[in-house]
Structure formats: C-alpha cells, structure tokens
Amino acid sequence: MAKAALDVKDLHAWYGDSHVLHGMTFHVQEGEVVTLLGRNGAGKTTTMRALMGSGVRRQGEIMVGGASAIDLPSHKIARLGLAWCPEERGIYSALSVQENLMLPPEVRPGGLSVEEIHQMFPRLKERAKSQGTKLSGGEQQMLAIARILRTGAHTLLLDEPTEGLAPIIVKQIGRIIAQLRERGFTIVLVEQNFHFASTLADRNYVVDRGRVIDMIPKHALADNKEKLVGYLGV
Fold this sequence. Notes:
By secondary structure, the protein is α/β, with parallel strands linked by helices. It has one domain (about 5-230): 3-Layer(aba) Sandwich (Rossmann fold), CATH 3.40.50. It contains 9 helices and 10 strands. The chain has helices spanning about 45-50, 75-80, 95-100, 115-120, 120-125, 135-150, 165-180, 195-200, 225-230, and strands at about 5-15, 20-30, 35, 55-65, 65-70, 80-85, 155-160, 185-190, 205-210, 210-215. It has a 6-stranded mixed beta sheet with strand order 6-7-8-3-9-10, with helices on both faces. Strands 2-1-4-5 form a 4-stranded antiparallel beta sheet, with helices on one face. Strand 1 (about 5-15) and strand 2 form a beta hairpin. The mean pLDDT is about 95.
C-alpha cells in the first residue's frame, strides 16, 4: 500500500474571528492526483493556506509524509516537502523569467534541475531574459509551477492552475500535471473546471461550507454525474 503524503483530520481555520474551515478531513497517498472541488467560497483556497500555515489561524491535524505540521511555521512546512502554487501566481515584475525561477531556495534534496525544468517547460527557456509580467497568462502559470519544482517539494498544492487560460493552454497544463505524476509527484489540485480536473484526478473530494461532504473516485464519476451537477452546478 502507498504511504500517505498528506493526511488532514478535523482541520479548522479562521481569518480573524471568521471561522471558514469546519473540520476538513481528507488524505492523499504518495503519487496520487487528488482534487478539491466546490463552488466559490466553499473553502478550497483556505484549505491550501491552512496546509501551508499562511495567513490563517488553524486547529486540527495535518500530517505531511508522516510528520505533524499543524504547529509549524510555513518555512518548516516547506522543508517537509510541501509546496503551494497560489492562484495569483506571484510573478515578480522587476525580475526576469530566469530570476523568478531561481528565486525560491532549495529546501530539501530531490528538486528538479534547471535543465530538467527547461525540458518540461521549453517556453521558459526561450523567454528566460524576458520580464516575468511580460509573459502571457499561460506562461506565467508555467513559471509559477516550475518555480516550486526546484525546491525539492514532492507534494504540490496547485490552486486554480487553469483560471483564465485559453483552452489550448489548459491542455498544456494538463499534460504538465500528467508528466509530474509520472515522475512520482503527489498533487492536490484545487479547480473550478471540473471537466479538466476529472481527466487527471484519481479521487475527487467535494468541499462545501468548509468541510468535505463527499469523495468520488475516478471510476465512479459516470455513475455520480447527477450528484456532481447538484454539488457544483456544472
């Protein structure tokens, strides 16, 4: 049996006095692609923030590769092998593509080399000297993903990686996620684009009002189509 890359139990989170997560519970095995699906405001991005200890107060249990992360600051959580690619991408306008790529430190062994990243993202090699914000939206998303691959992280949290992108770029992002899975990465994917997510994910967790309300494995999607329409309005 595969080991758990991420095990979350009864996770609560607050922005100030606002209680947003109400007992999130889910697990992700090593090498899996798992999605968190739900409507806007369901708590998916807050879950990403809580996992990384970023900007929220949290309570519950978070195990990363068997180590407890609930009381750790973000930089120590990163050393456990967890990395977050936020929806806003965070590309620095004053830095070139190459400088953006090299910005995060390596926090543990096993990160991809620049040569390996350029093989996976050839467009970033072509645009290496361009300013980060002169890239297209798809190129910025590729840079945001590529940047965390250098750190040595083995479990990737990807928050809305297809948001606002043209269909042809969405397909490219899908191919990249599939390649990362083949290389042994574990991926937690937050997506509103269910049709995109369902082609990639082994299991789909449905989130509503700050908690997981259902889990549907890939093989059961067809039999649960009406239920998913009700959950997501797709």
